[in-house]
Amino acid sequence: MIGRGPFKAVLFDLDGTLLDTAPDMVAALDRLLAAEGREPVNYEFARAHVSKGALGLIDMAFGELEEAHRMSLRDRYLDIYEESLAVASSLFDGMAEVLDFIERANMHWGVVTNKPGYLAEPLLAELGLLSRSATTVSGDTLPERKPHPRPLLYAAEQISVAPGEAMYV
Which of the residues are catalytic? Predict the structure, then answer.
């Protein structure tokens, strides 16, 4: 049982695990597409690509591009997304209860994401989660990003638990 077993902390990925950020991420992509004179993408198709991050969405929507143009579109996309991080993003169904349960069990929970801190932290704050999270390790917190183990090890260190005492979801 949680709280009585070997685990003292639960670390969550952000996009697609803790939070459903697809509505805002796809809306930002559609605004970029409109600015480029293109049609919006099919929402469900784009939703399946959200976990691939900004470049994954750009590649899906625009196809093969010269690298400089690809990076320019990514930067523009991130600017658009930053303006509307938490319009429709929310905890997945049941996650509020999961977080409450973890907290009632006197366990820590935190976030380990590849999303850069300038996006992850305001998003969590807007949803009332940043102050509840014992740690937030973003894609730019360390030189290494997931899937490298260092962000998870760092998160465990930040909340003073041994790596084997933390589970990652």
Answer: 13
Give the count of domains, the chain.
2
4 has a pLDDT exceeding 90:
no
- Residue 89 pLDDT level (bands cut at 50, 70, 90): very high
Coil, strand or helix at 91 = strand
pLDDT at 1: 45
Q: If DSSP codes are grouped into helix, strand and coil, which group holds residue 21? A: coil
| Token pair listed for 17 | 């695990």
d(CA 66, CA 44): 27
User: The domain containing residue 99 runs over which residues?
Assistant: 9-20+89-168
Give Cα 12 to chain centroid, integer Å.
9
DSSP state of 15: B
Alpha carbon distance 78, 82 (integer Å): 6
pTM above 0.90, yes or no: yes
What DSSP state is assigned to residue 51?
Answer: G
- Same domain for 66 and 109, yes or no, is no
